[in-house]
Amino acid sequence: MRILGIDYGDARVGVAISDALGITAQGLETIWHNGNDKIVLKRLEEIINMYKVETIVIGKPINMNGTSSERVEVTNKFIHKLHCKFPKIKIEEVDERLTTVAAHKTMNFLDVRKDKKKNIVDTISAMYILEIYMNKIKK
User: Fold this and answer.
1) Domain boundaries, the chain
2) Average pLDDT of span 62-76
3) Distance in angstroms (rounded) separating the CA atoms of residues 125 and 98
């Protein structure tokens, strides 16, 4: 059972994948799309077929006070596109608060060069989103 984690953004989408047993999460890639969801959906279809994904987990950009951010509406539209494109795949949403902060802390700890951070921050965030979901279903 593979689970796909997604950190959806305006220009980039971070993608992470679980192992076949659904125990660990690994960063997979960052999809650069500059607002064109067709690019994202095409690449996700390739990944879903390659890994035989059964569940997609996408982060919801909730404000720190628990209210919906401006990005929630944009993310909801993308989630609708996911439901239409992949009707047989379970799609779950998780609160993604502080995942980008955690990703930056991880990169700082690993001493990732500044010019490399933009390329991997979304992938690491997607990995944290996936881990949040996996920990939730373990309980």
Assistant:
1) 2-138
2) 81
3) 9
Residue 68 has pLDDT above 80, yes or no: no
The set of long-range contacts for 135-138, using a CB threshold of 8 Å and a minimum separation of 24, is 136/94, 137/22
The sheet with strand 25-32 has its strands ordered as 25-32, 12-18, 2-8, 53-60, 90-95
Nearest CA to 9 out of 64, 58, 66, 80 is that of 58
Give me the chain's average pLDDT, please.
Answer: 87
Name which of 127, 110, 134 is nearest 15 in CA terms: 127
pLDDT digits (tens, 9 = 90+) for 110-122: 666 777 756 777 8
CA angle 22/80/60 to nearest 5° reads: 60
Domain 2-138 superfamily per CATH? YqgF/RNase H-like domain (3.30.420.140)
Token pair 């959906």 is at which residue?
41
Q: Which residue type sits at 137?
A: I
Q: Which of 22, 26, 52 is nearest to 126 (CA)?
A: 26
The answer to whether 96 touches 121, Cβ cutoff 8 Å, is no
